[in-house]
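Lecture 7 notes: from sequence to structure.
We start with the chain below.
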Amino acid sequence: MKRRKAGRTSQQQRDKKRYPFTKSTKIIELVDKKHYGDVVKLAERLKPFMMDGGKGAFMLTGLFFDLEKVNGQRQFIIDELALFLKKLKDENGLKCKQNIFFRYLSCPEHCNLEISENSLKPLVLEAIRRLF
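Predicted structure tokens for the same chain:
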């Protein structure tokens, strides 16, 4: 018996739920207003590794790193993301589900670390366990 393929509109609806962000979605849009300061701190901590020294936190549409500067410093970046995410999780500061946040960071339009969602999530969660 043949399986029926999902129609284009139902597939698009599923994708919209799974990826509820666009190329122009800013990191700041994923967190509550009371945690904007945490996004600013994250941007400041990662600024030495960012291309062009990084933009202001309110303009960041992703985390784009200078890969030469990141060489050997990936664990520092993962640790910073872990600290950021731990604080947001403890205070219910994410506007989206945690998985969507990881999808956002694993999307090439928003981050150039080239780490898949399935790899990034355990790295960050392990860093949270190690740091706390």
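Points to note: Helices lie at 8-18, 36-46, 67-70, 74-90, 98-106, 117-131. The mean pLDDT is 90.
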